[in-house]
Amino acid sequence: MNDKYLLRLCLFCSILGLVILFIGVQYVEAKVISIGEISEDEIGALVSVEGRVYSSYYNGEHLFFTLKDDTGKIKIVIFENSIKRLKINPGEIRNGVEMGIEGEVKKYKGELEILPERIQM
């Protein structure tokens, strides 16, 4: 085998792997769960929750709020780049607003939080 052949084979396998990953990600579905059921077992998982905004804070770059349902509450963190991507007006996120959030569960400073991928108001 010559070096040119191995290089082409490696390039082909790399591109094929990326294509398979891209297609696979399209079929990942969020786990529908109540806020009170979210535990450390869900860290890194994609979840879908619904609730009402309990408190919110926008520092000019990032938006922080608590989403609450009958079973519990969880912090939602939306960083500046996600605010733009999700096309959110931070002024619309205020107490009592109902919303559905699909996002990844993370743990920060001992607290569970969700970083949204999709928001439905």
Outline the structure in words.
- The chain has helices spanning 3-25, 80-86, and strands spanning 31-32, 46-58, 63-69, 72-78, 98-108, 111-120.
- Strand 5 (98-108) and strand 6 (111-120) form a beta hairpin.
- The protein starts with a helix and ends with a strand.
- It has a single domain, classed as OB fold (Dihydrolipoamide Acetyltransferase, E2P) (Beta Barrel), CATH 2.40.50.
- The protein is elongated.
- The chain has a 5-stranded mixed barrel.
- It has 2 helices and 6 strands.
- The model has no long low-confidence stretch (mean pLDDT 91).
- It has 121 residues and is of the alpha/beta class.
Could you name the ranges where pLDDT drops below 50 across 5 or more consecutive residues? none
Fourth-tier CATH superfamily name: Nucleic acid-binding proteins
Shape assignment? elongated
CATH class: Mainly Beta
Question: The biggest beta sheet, please?
Answer: 5 strands, mixed, barrel
CATH architecture: Beta Barrel
Structural class: alpha/beta
Helices and strands, in order, run as HEEEEHEE
By DSSP, the count of extended strands is 6
- Provide the domain count: 1
* Helix percentage: 10-25%
Distance between the termini: 58 Å
Mean pLDDT: 91
State the helix count.
2
Major β-sheet strand ordering: 2-3-4-6-5
Q: What Rg, in angstroms, do the CA atoms define? A: 19 Å
Beta fraction: 35-45%
CATH topology: OB fold (Dihydrolipoamide Acetyltransferase, E2P)
